[in-house]
Amino acid sequence: MSLLEVQNLKKYFATQKAVDDISFKVSKGSIFGLLGPNGAGKTTLIRMITGIFYPDEGQVIFDGKKFDPVNDVVHIGYMPEERGLYKKMKIGEQAVYLAQLKGLKKNEAMAKIKEWFVKFEMQSWWSKKVEDLSKGMSQKLQFVTTVLHEPKLIILDEPFSGLDPVNSNLIKDEIFKLAQKGSTILFSTHRMEQVEEICDHIILINKGQKILDGTVKGVKHQYKENLFSIGFEEIPASLNANPPFEMVGTKDHLYVVKIKEGFRPNDVLNYFLQQGAKIVSFNEMLPSLSDIFIKLVEGTPLTRQFQAITV
Amino acid sequence: MNKIWLVIKREYLTRVRNKTFLLSTFLFPIIIVAFIIGSTLLAIKTRNKVKIAVVNDPGFLQKNLESDSSSVIFEYPTDVNSSNYESKGYIGLLKVNSDTAREKYVIESKKSLSIETMSYVERQMKKAIEYNMLQEKNIERKILDSISTASEKAAQITNQLDTGKEANNKLPYIIGFGCGIIIYITMFVFGAMVMRGVMEEKTSRIAEVIVSSVKPFQLMMGKILGIAAVGLTQLLLWIVFLMILVNIIPLFVSAETLEQFQQVQEAQQQLPGGSNNTVALEMLKATNTLVNEVNWPLIITCFLFYFLGGYLFYASLFAAVGSAVNEDPQEAQSLMLPIMMPIVFGFIILSTSIENPDSPMAFWGSMIPFTSPIVMMGRIAKGVPEVVPWWQLFLSMGLLILGFIFTTWLAGKIYRTGILMYGKKATWKEMIKWVRRS
Question: Which residues of B touch A14 (CB under 8 A)?
Answer without folding.
Answer: 433, 437
